[in-house]
C-alpha cells in the first residue's frame, strides 16, 4: 500500500489500516488532522510481507505474565500458601458452596472460593477477594454464564476425607462425577466414571494478587501491617523475596505508550493438568495454528487485536477469544477414550502455556506439538485482572462436552436459512451501479447467491448509519431491488464514531456521556504517607559547644546569639510520596480509525447498547429495509494510534468506572450484542444476522464470526480447517474464512480449491477481498474456472437442507455443525493424532467427511485420506463405497475428497435456483447411504419458515426422523406442523449401497394403505478404495411424499 495517483485520498494504511482507504473523510478533518494522520501512516505502513511483531507484546514484554513465569519457578514451589478453611463452608444462593481461603503469610482469610456442580456435568471454580481495597470486575450475570445460572446437580453428596471436601453427583448424561476439593494447598481433582480427568492447581501455580493501597508492597492485612521487611514476605507474584521484578507493577511502557496503573497489580493465574494418556489438546480460538495445538515456547495470547497480515503457526493473539481447551484422554486396557474441556472465563489479557512432562517432537515434525504426544498434558493460565472463574466440562463424551458448554453459556439461536447460502463481499463495491451489476452478473451466469455486502466506502465520510450521497444517492431503490430478487443486503457498521458535531450519532452519544473516557493523570501527595515522628526538619541547630564570650556586653554588643551549625540529624526536607490522583480529570477518549478522529462508545453499558440498537430502526437508518443486516468490523476495538493498535488499558468505561484492561476481550462482544438486540427490535419476530470480527465466550448467541484478514496462500487455505474446527469446538458454529483469502489474489486453481472446501466445511460461506486486489467474483475468472466454482455453489445449495438440519441440532443440543473427526469417532485412535485426519479433514454433522486440498497439482496429483472406523463411506460425487482406512487417492480439479457416512439418510434439494428463498417451495430429495453390514440407514430433516421465530411456539416446524430398513424407507417419527412458507414434500429418492439391482419400487400412503408402483433406474457403482462394487437406485416419486402427513407412508424398493 502507498500513495497512488489519488494522493492522500487513495492512501491505504494502518494494521488493518493498511487494507483500507480514508477517502475524503481524512481531508475533511482539515490540514492539521491530515498531517497527523500522515505521521501515523508513516509509522504504521509496513511491506506487505508479514505481521509487524514489534507492535504486539509477548509474555516477556508484559509485566504480569513475566511475573507469573517467575512466580512458578520459585524455590519450594510445593509449599502450601493458600489453604481452604473447611470450617467456613456455606451453601450459596445459587445452589453451590463457598469457603474462605487463607494465605499462610496473612492473619486473615481474604479470598472467597465458590464451587458449583451443575447437573449438565460442569464444575465451576471461582476465587474473588473478600472486602477488597478496590472492587474487582466481575462479568455481569447473564452476559457469559446464563442467568438464572445453570441448574445445580440434584442429590449431590458432600463428604469429608483426609484433607479434602468431596462432592459426588451424577450428570444428566449419567456420568458419575467426583470432585475433590483439596484443602492445603487449595486444589481441585475432577473425575468421571472413576477416572481422573483434570487437576486444578495440581502443580501449585496459583497466584492471586489482591489490590493494594497506592504503591504499597503488600495488600491490607493485620500481619502485613506490622511487617518489618515486607519485601521478604512470600505472598504472591507481586510480592516475594525471590528476585521480584517490580517493573510494571504501577506503571508500564510499551510501544511509546504509558499504561498508568493506579489500582496496582491485580493478576491471577493457575495450572491445569489433563490426566491420563493425552495425545493432543484442541481449541483455544482464535489463533492460526494446527488443530492439534502446538506446545510453543511462547504462551498462547488472548488479547483481541487488529493484527495486520497474521502469520501461520503462531500463538500471537488475533481478533477474538474463547479460552476453551479440549483434551482427549485415551483409554487403556479396554477402557474407552474420553474427552474433557477447561474454560477460563476472564476478559482481561490472558496467556495460556501448554506443557508436557517430557520434551521432544510429536509426530516427528516441527509443525506439531513439542513434547511427546502421550501422557498427561499441562496448561497454565494467567490474566491481568478480574477474578478467577473457571469451569471444568467433564464430558466425558464429546457431545456431552459441547452440551455442557451451551448449558453454561446459553444456546445459539437458529440462523435464517439465507445466512447459510453464498455471501458476496468486497472492500468495496463503490457505487449503486457497481453493486447492482454484481447482482446482475450472478444471474447472467446462473450462479446462486443469497447476500451482497457493502464495506466502509458506502458511508458518508465513514460516518456509519449514513450513505455516500454521490456514490449511493438512492440506497432505498438499490436495497429494494435486491429484495425483489429474494436476496439480502449487509452493511458494515463499525464501533468507532466519527467526531463531527454535525453527525447526530456522535453528538447524541457524547451528550449522554456514553463514550469511553481517558484520564488526564495528575499526581498528588499520598495521604497515607505521614511524616515520621522522629523526622528532624531543621537544617541548622545551635552549636552546643558555643559559649558566650566573657567580654560580650549585651548593652554595647547587642543580644548574643548562639552560632548555628549543620544539624547532624537533619534528613532533608520532608516530601511525601507522590501517587496518581484517582480523581484526575477525565474526558472522552479519542482515537484514530477510518473516519479520522473517533469516539469509542462504552458498550458495556446497557443504556448505550439500547441507544445503539435503536439506530437500526427503519425510520432512523434511512435507505434500509427489513432485508438489510449488519456487519460489525474493527471491534477489538481497533485504534490506529493506540497501544498495540487498540484502546489504552487505563481508559475508563464510565459504566461502573471499570478500566478497559478489565473488559478488553469483551468489547467486541458487547458491540455485536447491541447490534443483534437492535435488529431484534427493528422487526419483531425476525431472526437477526450480525457478522463480527471480535468475539468472546457467548458470542455464539448473537453473531456469526469469520477468521479475519487471511491471505490467498495455500497454507491459509489448509489452516482454515483447523481454525474453523477450533471455533466450533468452542461453541461458535456460524463461522467461516474468507474464501480465496482477503489479501493478494488467488489464481484459478486456488480459487476453485477454496470454494470446494468452503461449500462443505464453512458454515458461513463468504467471498471477500482487499480493495487493491483484482476483482474475483466467480464470473471474473476464465470459463472453465467459473464452471467449476458454479458446480461447487450448486452443491452448497443442494445440501442446504442438511446444513439447516445440522444447525437445528446445534441450536437444540449444542452439537457443532462442523467438527474435528474425533468428535464423532473418538473410539478410533487415528482421529486423535493422525496428521491427515486431524489437520486436513473435518466433518459436516455426523454425515459428511471432507478433505481439503492445499497443494497445487503441480506439486502433487494425489493425496492421502483417512476414513475413520465406521460402517463405511460413500464418495459424495459418485456414490462409490469405500471401507475405513488410509488411502492414497488421485486428485483432479473437478472435486476434492468428500464422503457420506454409511448408514445415513441425507435430505437434499435437486432444483437449484438463484437464492435459497427461491427454493423454498421446491420438493426434497432423500439420499440413502446403506450400512452394508445391516442394510439400514437413518437420518433427519428439520423444516421451519427459515426466517422468523415462529418455530419457538412448539408447533410451527416439521421435524422428521427417517429410517431405511429391510428395503423400506419411512418416517419413524414426525413432530410439528409444516409451515406454509416451505415445501414438506419429497420428489426423489436415491439409494446407494444396494447388494443387487432393484426391479421395482412401491409407495404406500395414507392410513388406507393406498399404493403406487414407481419406476426405478439403477446402475452399478464401481468400488472405492478398499470397498466393493454396489448398486444405486433412483426412484422418482409420484405423487410426491408429503412429510407433513406424519408417518403414514413407506417407500419399498425390491
Describe the fold and architecture.
By secondary structure, the chain is α+β, with helices and mostly antiparallel strands. 17% of the residues lie in helices and 28% in strands. The chain contains 18 helices and 61 strands. It has an 11-stranded mixed beta sheet. The longest helix is centred in the middle third of the chain and has 16 residues, at 667-682. The protein is globular and about 145 Å long. It starts with 11 loop residues before the first strand and ends with a strand. 53% of the residues are buried. Residues 1-36, 38-48 and 359-371 have low confidence and may be disordered.
Q: Give the distance, in angstroms, between the N- and C-terminal Cα atoms.
A: 66 Å
Strand order of the largest sheet: 58-57-61-55-54-53-51-52-56-60-59
Radius of gyration: 32 Å
Low-confidence stretches: 1-36, 38-48, 359-371
Q: Sheet bearing the most strands, described? A: 11 strands, mixed
| Coarse morphology | globular
Number of strands: 61
Calculate the mean pLDDT score and round it.
Answer: 93
Assembly category: single chain
Proportion of residues in extended strands? 25-35%
Please bin the fraction of helical residues: 10-25%
What structural class do the secondary elements suggest?
alpha+beta
What is the count of helical runs? 18
Annotate the secondary structure layout.
Blueprint: E1 12-13, E2 20-21, H1 24-28, H2 31-44, H3 63-71, E3 82-91, E4 97-103, E5 109-117, E6 122-129, E7 157-161, E8 164-170, E9 176-182, E10 187-192, E11 195-200, E12 207-208, H4 222-225, E13 251-254, E14 257-260, E15 268-274, E16 281-283, E17 300-302, E18 324-329, E19 338-344, E20 350-356, E21 377-383, E22 388-393, H5 398-409, E23 422-424, H6 432-444, E24 451-454, H7 475-484, E25 488-492, E26 497-498, H8 504-511, E27 517-519, E28 523-525, E29 540-542, H9 554-557, E30 564-566, E31 578-580, E32 586-588, E33 590-593, E34 596-599, H10 606-614, E35 628-632, E36 652-653, E37 658-659, H11 660-663, H12 667-682, E38 690-692, E39 704-706, H13 714-729, E40 735-736, E41 738-739, H14 748-761, E42 765-767, H15 783-798, H16 800-813, E43 818-819, H17 830-833, H18 835-839, E44 841-844, E45 848-851, E46 862-867, E47 873-875, E48 881-882, E49 885-890, E50 898-901, E51 904-908, E52 924-929, E53 937-943, E54 958-965, E55 968-976, E56 985-994, E57 1001-1005, E58 1010-1014, E59 1016-1021, E60 1030-1042, E61 1049-1053
Parallel strand pairs: 23-24, 23-42, 24-25, 25-35, 35-38, 38-39, 39-40, 41-42, 51-53, 52-56
Antiparallel strand pairs: 1-2, 3-4, 4-5, 5-6, 6-22, 7-8, 8-9, 9-10, 10-11, 11-15, 12-15, 13-14, 15-21, 16-18, 17-20, 18-19, 19-22, 20-21, 26-34, 27-32, 28-31, 29-30, 33-34, 36-37, 43-44, 44-45, 45-50, 46-49, 47-48, 47-50, 51-52, 53-54, 54-55, 55-61, 56-60, 57-58, 57-61, 59-60
Helix pairs in contact: 6-7, 10-12, 14-15
Amino acid at each position: 500500500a502507498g500513495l497512488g495517483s489519488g494522493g492522500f485520498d487513495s492512501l491505504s494504511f494502518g494494521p488493518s489500516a493498511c487494507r483500507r482507504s480514508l477517502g475524503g473523510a481524512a481531508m475533511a478533518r482539515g490540514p492539521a488532522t491530515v498531517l497527523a494522520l500522515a505521521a501515523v501512516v508513516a509509522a504504521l505502513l509496513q511491506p506487505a510481507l508479514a505481521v509487524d511483531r514489534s507492535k504486539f507484546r509477548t509474555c516477556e514484554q508484559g509485566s504480569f505474565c513475566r511475573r507469573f513465569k517467575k512466580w512458578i519457578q520459585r524455590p519450594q514451589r510445593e509449599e502450601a500458601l493458600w489453604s481452604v478453611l473447611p470450617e467456613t463452608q456455606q451453601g450459596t444462593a445459587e445452589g453451590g458452596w463457598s469457603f474462605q481461603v487463607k494465605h499462610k503469610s496473612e492473619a486473615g482469610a481474604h479470598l472467597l472460593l465458590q464451587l458449583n456442580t451443575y447437573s449438565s456435568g460442569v464444575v465451576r471454580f471461582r476465587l474473588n477477594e473478600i472486602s477488597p481495597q478496590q472492587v474487582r470486575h466481575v462479568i455481569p450475570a447473564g452476559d457469559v454464564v446464563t442467568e438464572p445460572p445453570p441448574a445445580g446437580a440434584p442429590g449431590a453428596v458432600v463428604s469429608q476425607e483426609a484433607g479434602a471436601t468431596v462432592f459426588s453427583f451424577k450428570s444428566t448424561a449419567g456420568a458419575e462425577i467426583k470432585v475433590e476439593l483439596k484443602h492445603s494447598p487449595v486444589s481441585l481433582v475432577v473425575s468421571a466414571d472413576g477416572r481422573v480427568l483434570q487437576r486444578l492447581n495440581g502443580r501449585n501455580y496459583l497466584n492471586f494478587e489482591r489490590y493494594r493501597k497506592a504503591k504499597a508492597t503488600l495488600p491490607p492485612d493485620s500481619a502485613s501491617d506490622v511487617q518489618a521487611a515486607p519485601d521478604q514476605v512470600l505472598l504472591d507474584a507481586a510480592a516475594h523475596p525471590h528476585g521480584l521484578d517490580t517493573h510494571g507493577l504501577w506503571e508500564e511502557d510499551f510501544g511509546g505508550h504509558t499504561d498508568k496503573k493506579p489500582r496496582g497489580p491485580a493478576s491471577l493465574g493457575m495450572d491445569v493438568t489433563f490426566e491420563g494418556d493425552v495425545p493432543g489438546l484442541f481449541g483455544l480460538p482464535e489463533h492460526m495454528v494446527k488443530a492439534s495445538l502446538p506446545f510453543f515456547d511462547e504462551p498462547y495470547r488472548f488479547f483481541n487485536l487488529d493484527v495486520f497480515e497474521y502469520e501461520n503457526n503462531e500463538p500471537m493473539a488475533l481478533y477474538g477469544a474463547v479460552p476453551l481447551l479440549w483434551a482427549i484422554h485415551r483409554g487403556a486396557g479396554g477402557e474407552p477414550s474420553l474427552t474433557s474441556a477447561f474454560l477460563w472465563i476472564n476478559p482481561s489479557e490472558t496467556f495460556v502455556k501448554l506443557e508436557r512432562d517430557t520434551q521432544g517432537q510429536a509426530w516427528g515434525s516441527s509443525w506439531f506439538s513439542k513434547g511427546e504426544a502421550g501422557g498427561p498434558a499441562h496448561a497454565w493460565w494467567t490474566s491481568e485482572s478480574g477474578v478467577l472463574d473457571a469451569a471444568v466440562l467433564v464430558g466425558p463424551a464429546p457431545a456431552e462436552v459441547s452440551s455442557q458448554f451451551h448449558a453454561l453459556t446459553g444456546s445459539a439461536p437458529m440462523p435464517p436459512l439465507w445466512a447459510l447460502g453464498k455471501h458476496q463481499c468486497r472492500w468495496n463495491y463503490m457505487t449503486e451501479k457497481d453493486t447492482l451489476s454484481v447482482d446482475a452478473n450472478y444471474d447472467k451466469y446462473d450462479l446462486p447467491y443469497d447476500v451482497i455486502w457493502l464495506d466502509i466506502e458506502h458511508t458518508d465520510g465513514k460516518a456509519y448509519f449514513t450513505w455516500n450521497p454521490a456514490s449511493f444517492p438512492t440506497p432505498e431503490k438499490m436495497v429494494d431491488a435486491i429484495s425483489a430478487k429474494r436476496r439480502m443486503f449487509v452493511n458494515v457498521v463499525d464501533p468507532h464514531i466519527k467526531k463531527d458535531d454535525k453527525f447526530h450519532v456522535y453528538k447524541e452519544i457524547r451528550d449522554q456521556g456514553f463514550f469511553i473516557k481517558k484520564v488526564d493523570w495528575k499526581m498528588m501527595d499520598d495521604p497515607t504517607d505521614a511524616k515520621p515522628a522522629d523526622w528532624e526538619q531543621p537544617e541548622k541547630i545551635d552549636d552546643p559547644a558555643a559559649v558566650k564570650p566573657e567580654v560580650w556586653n549585651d548593652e554595647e554588643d547587642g543580644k548574643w546569639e548562639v552560632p548555628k551549625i549543620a544539624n547532624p540529624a537533619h534528613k532533608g526536607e520532608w516530601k511525601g510520596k507522590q501517587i496518581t490522583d484517582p480523581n484526575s480529570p477525565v474526558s472522552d477518549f479519542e482515537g484514530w480509525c477510518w473516519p479520522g478522529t473517533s469516539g469509542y462508545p462504552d458498550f458495556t453499558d446497557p443504556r448505550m447498547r439500547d441507544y445503539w440498537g435503536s439506530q437500526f430502526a427503519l425510520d432512523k437508518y434511512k435507505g434500509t429495509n427489513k432485508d438489510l443486516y449488519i456487519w460489525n468490523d474493527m471491534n477489538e476495538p481497533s485504534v490506529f494510534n493506540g497501544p498495540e493498535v487498540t484502546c489504552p488499558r487505563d481508559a475508563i468505561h464510565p459504566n461502573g468506572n471499570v478500566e478497559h484492561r478489565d473488559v478488553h476481550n469483551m468489547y467486541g462482544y458487547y458491540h455485536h450484542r447491541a447490534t443483534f438486540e437492535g435488529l431484534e427490535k427493528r422487526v419483531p419476530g425476525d431472526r437477526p444476522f450480525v457478522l463480527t470480527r471480535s468475539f468472546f465466550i457467548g458470542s455464539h448467541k448473537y453473531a456469526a464470526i469469520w477468521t479475519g484478514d487471511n491471505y490467498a496462500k495455500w497454507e491459509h487455505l489448509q489452516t482454515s480447517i483447523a481454525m474453523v474446527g477450533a471455533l466450533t469446538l468452542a461453541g461458535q458454529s456460524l463461522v467461516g474464512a474468507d474464501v480465496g483469502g482477503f489479501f493478494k489474489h488467488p489464481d484459478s486453481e486456488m480459487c476453485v480449491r477454496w470454494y470446494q472446501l468452503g461449500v462443505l466445511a464453512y458454515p458461513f460461506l463468504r467471498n471477500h477481498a482487499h480493495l487493491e486486489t483484482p476483482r474475483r467474483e466467480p464470473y471474473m475468472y476464465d470459463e472453465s474456472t467459473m464452471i467449476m466454482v458454479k458446480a461447487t455453489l450448486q452443491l452448497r445449495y443442494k445440501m442446504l437442507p442438511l446444513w439447516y438440519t445440522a444447525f437445528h441440532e446445534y441450536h437444540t443440543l449444542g452439537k457443532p455443525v462442523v467438527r474435528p473427526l474425533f468428535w464423532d469417532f473418538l473410539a478410533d485412535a487415528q482421529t486423535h493424532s493422525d496428521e491427515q485426519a486431524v489437520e486436513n479433514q473435518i466433518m459436516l454433522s455426523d454425515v459428511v467427511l471432507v478433505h481439503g486440498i492445499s497443494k497445487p497439482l503441480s506439486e502433487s496429483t494425489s493425496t492421502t485420506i483417512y476414513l475413520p472406523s465406521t460402517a463405511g463411506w460413500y464418495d459424495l460425487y459418485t456414490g462409490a463405497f469405500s471401507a475405513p482406512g488410509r488411502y492414497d487417492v488421485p486428485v483432479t480439479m473437478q472435486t476434492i475428497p468428500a464422503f457420506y457416512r454409511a448408514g445415513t439418510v441425507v435430505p437434499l434439494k435437486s432444483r437449484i435456483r438463484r437464492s435459497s428463498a427461491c427454493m423454498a417451495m421446491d420438493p426434497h430429495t432423500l439420499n440413502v447411504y446403506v450400512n452394508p453390514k445391516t442394510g439400514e440407514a437413518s437420518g433427519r430433516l428439520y423444516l421451519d419458515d427459515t426466517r422468523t421465530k415462529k418455530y419457538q411456539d412448539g408447533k410451527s416446524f416439521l421435524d422428521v426422523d427417517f429410517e431405511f430398513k429391510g428395503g423400506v424407507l419411512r418416517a419413524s417419527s414426525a413432530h410439528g406442523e409444516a409451515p406454509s412458507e416451505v415445501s414438506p414434500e419429497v420428489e426423489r429418492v436415491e439409494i446407494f449401497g444396494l447388494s443387487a439391482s432393484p426391479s421395482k419400487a412401491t409407495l404406500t400412503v395414507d392410513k388406507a394403505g393406498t399404493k403406487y408402483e414407481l419406476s426405478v433406474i439403477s446402475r452399478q457403482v464401481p468400488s472405492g478404495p478398499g470397498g466393493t462394487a454396489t448398486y444405486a437406485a433412483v426412484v422418482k416419486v409420484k405423487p410426491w411424499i408429503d412429510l407433513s402427513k406424519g408417518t403414514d407412508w413407506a417407500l419399498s424398493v425390491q
